[in-house]
Inverse folding.
């Protein structure tokens, strides 16, 4: 696997193409690896680095966990640089990490792109991943089950992109980010890839969006809203992308019906969908759609994927655990019922015994079977 990095340091060499076969110029694409290490990786390490030395030591008091697989030189220590390097992916050819796709509000936003290694010389269809984390957490990086899902698409001949967007911070009154910004940034990531489609040999007429939880919500928003909606960076707004399909894993389809957030799982604490209000409008009090003031009602509708569902909307595959309490399976059922009424296509797979994130010791279909279902769906396009 070939890793590509684009360091914009000496101006004297900045016009040299770093991939002769593609004819890139280093002035066109910018590497955000140092930013990613300093502002994403190091803060995350602080939570698991027990001795505070900025490095995770295997066998120490550090909570190394899945980071251990990133010890590339096998010295028993995982550095931020090794984490940024990531893992090799089965089925991948060239990999471009930490591409800067835009800067906004003091943040540098990054995207990773994995190209399949089994291309036939044509342009690659694209699976575009939006990460989960409640719109306020998570990241674009690939490891664990996410890595396995990416490999499912790569071995099928799809390129895979994974985007990081501005995160909502409910505890910081100085943080202006809302869920709407998450949608805007995710859209701009797609527009950035459209802008550079020829360079990366991407077929941007064959884009399938994909994500889990909050990322599943964003995947639906990308697929169902028009390409000119949720405009962001002026330098990207003219690049039009119309996804042809969407895979959403346990993502919310509507914030307007509070009954969708009542799981009905025996013994489980029932969560109220109104808890998302402050993530939509800063300072908003938790409220249902019926009781919300006009601005919040408007935003609840604007951020509900169901608002944009039409007869000719791209097909959606929605996969949901039947014991999901955070985002109950009713969201998938409601999405399909609404689609059936207007003749749109929504396929639903209910995973028996599974909670949010498909947690559970014995689930059906199994994780490998879920990956196969996802792969088959994407290969239709």
């Amino acid at each position: 696997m070939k890793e590509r990095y684009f360091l914009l340091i000496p101006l004297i060499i900045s016009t040299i193409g770093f991939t002769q076969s593609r004819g890139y110029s280093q002035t066109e694409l910018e590497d955000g690896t140092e930013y990613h290490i300093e502002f994403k990786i190091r803060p995350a390490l602080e939570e698991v680095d027990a001795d505070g030395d900025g490095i995770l030591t295997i066998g120490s008091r550090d909570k190394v966990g899945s980071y251990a697989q990133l010890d590339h030189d096998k010295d028993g220590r995982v550095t931020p640089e090794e984490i940024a390097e990531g893992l090799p992916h089965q089925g991948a050819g060239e990999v471009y990490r930490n591409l800067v796709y835009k800067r906004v509000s003091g943040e540098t936003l990054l995207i990773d792109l994995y190209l399949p290694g089994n291309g036939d010389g044509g342009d690659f269809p694209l699976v575009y991943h939006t990460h989960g984390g409640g719109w306020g957490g998570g990241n674009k990086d690939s490891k664990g089950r996410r890595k396995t899902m990416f490999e499912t698409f790569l071995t099928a001949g799809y390129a895979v992109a994974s985007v990081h967007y501005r995160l909502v911070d409910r505890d910081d009154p100085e943080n202006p980010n809302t869920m709407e910004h998450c949608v805007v940034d995710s859209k701009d990531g797609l527009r950035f890839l459209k802008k550079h489609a020829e360079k990366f040999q991407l077929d941007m007429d064959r884009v399938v969006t994909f994500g889990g939880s909050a990322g599943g919500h964003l995947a639906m928003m990308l697929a169902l809203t028009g390409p000119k909606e949720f405009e962001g960076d002026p330098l990207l707004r003219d690049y039009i992308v119309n996804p042809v399909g969407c895979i959403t894993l346990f993502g919310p389809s509507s914030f307007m019906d509070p009954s969708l957030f009542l799981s009905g799982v025996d013994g489980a604490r029932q969560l109220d969908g109104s808890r998302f209000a402050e993530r939509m409008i800063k300072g908003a009090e938790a409220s249902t759609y019926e009781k919300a003031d006009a601005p919040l009602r408007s935003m609840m509708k604007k951020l509900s994927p169901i608002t944009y569902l039409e007869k000719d909307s791209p097909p959606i595959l929605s996969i949901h655990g039947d014991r999901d309490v955070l985002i109950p399976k009713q969201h998938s059922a409601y999405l399909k019922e609404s689609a059936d009424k207007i003749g749109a296509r929504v396929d639903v797979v209910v995973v028996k015994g599974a909670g949010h994130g498909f947690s559970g010791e014995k689930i059906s279909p199994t994780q490998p079977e879920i990956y196969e279902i996802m792969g088959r769906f994407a290969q239709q396009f």
Observations:
- Residues 245 and 380 are 9 Å apart (CA to CA).
- The two ends are 26 Å apart (CA to CA).
- The chain is about 25% helix and 20% strand.
- Residues 88-378 form a domain with the Rossmann fold fold (CATH 3.40.50.1820).
